[in-house]
Amino acid sequence: MPNSAKEHWHLSKPSITGGKGLVASQHYLASDAGAKILQMGGNAMDAAIATGLMLGIVEPWMSGIGGGGYMTVYQAKNDRVQVVEFGMQALLASSSTDYPLADEGTNAADSFNWPAVIDDTNIHGPLAVAIPGYLKGMGLANQAFGTMPFSKLIEPACQQAELG
Hints:
Elements: E1 15-18, E2 21-24, H1 28-39, H2 44-58, E3 69-75, E4 80-86, E5 89-90, E6 101-106, E7 115-117, E8 130-131, H3 134-145, H4 150-163
Antiparallel strand pairs: 1-2, 3-4, 5-8, 6-7
Helix pairs in contact: 1-2, 2-4
């Protein structure tokens, strides 16, 4: 019997609990940053922002200020769902004519199966650059849903970055 048939893996995410809640993430230092924000009186959004900022330091290959995304926020007290969008943006001087589509095919290296662009200018070179939206999105989420100043939420990540 192959060894792989005998293996048993326990997969989990490190979580940190405290008197004010629980935070789970891909790294214990990120979970700890969020839990400490809860202990300081922050709300779930404050903890999520601090956790995400710390992930950018301890797992920069998966997270960080150079990217973007979106956040779905559920507010139980008024049964409302809102979305904070913070995607990357193309350069202001760019145009769709900078990315002429190939006559056929898709970009095999792209998981979205988008149409191929001539010379892959959307993937390689100076026209492939986008303006990150992550920090702007965290700021918007903090203003709309947070209770603590952004400077307090980014502090744990800054301290960890200085430690290396």
